[in-house]
Design a protein that fits this description.
The protein is mostly beta strands and 193 residues long. Helices cover 11% and strands 66% of the residues. Strands 1-2-3-5-6-7-8-9 form an eight-stranded antiparallel barrel. The chain is elongated and about 60 Å long.
Length: 193
């Protein structure tokens, strides 16, 4: 009976320990994404979506009582595609770097915004011929992160990357304006170190 009481007391102590959001130091994470890709401006009219995955790592620094700043690198895989084997457009993967600015709402939860650079690789298939092109983009986003333990958090984020066409592509399209917009929603697990 005494052992049971000790085990129960230890379990209550662990359960009542607050899970603090880790908004300082090194972290890494993995998640799933849903992407909706569409064309914009003069090229408007194409849209497709898919499920993907993301891995990321970053570093946060406290910037006051409730604020933090950080940098983050990411790599995303995507299955977003429209078309078939003879004519298709798809996004294969993307990588990038961004800065984050956040505020701690309480001991467990923080909100943040991000701005950064993203490079995405697109594949276009025409008449069975596959051509791959890498495009540069501006990434903006916002998210919420909440701690489930001292070193593990859950993150939900919405981001939008606008990829612009290269000069060669604009010239080939008679100076058409536009590009690709990638709206991405992600759910991730974050591990602090």
């Amino acid at each position: 009976m005494r052992k049971f009481a000790l085990v129960a007391a230890a379990a209550v102590a662990v359960a009542s320990t607050p899970a603090l959001a880790s908004t300082s130091g090194l972290y890494a994470g993995v998640g799933v994404t849903h992407e909706n890709v569409s064309t914009s401006a003069d090229l408007e009219g194409i849209g497709f979506s898919g499920i993907g995955g993301t891995v990321f790592a970053g570093y946060n620094i406290p910037a006051g009582d409730n604020l933090f700043v950080g940098v983050e690198a990411n790599f995303d895989l995507s299955s977003a595609k429209v078309g078939d084997a003879t004519a298709a457009t798809e996004i294969d993967n993307a990588f990038g770097f961004s800065g984050r600015l956040g505020v701690n709402l309480n001991e467990k939860t923080s909100l943040y915004g991000r701005v950064g650079y993203q490079r995405g690789r697109f594949s276009v298939t025409e008449l069975g011929q596959n051509v791959q092109e890498s495009l540069d983009g501006l990434r903006l986003g916002a998210g919420v992160e909440t701690a489930v333990s001292e070193k593990v958090s859950l993150r939900a984020e919405y981001g939008r990357t606008h990829y612009t066409l290269s000069k060669v592509e604009r010239d080939a399209l008679a100076q058409a304006k536009g590009g690709f917009n990638n709206d991405q929603f992600s759910l991730a697990v974050v591990f602090g170190f």
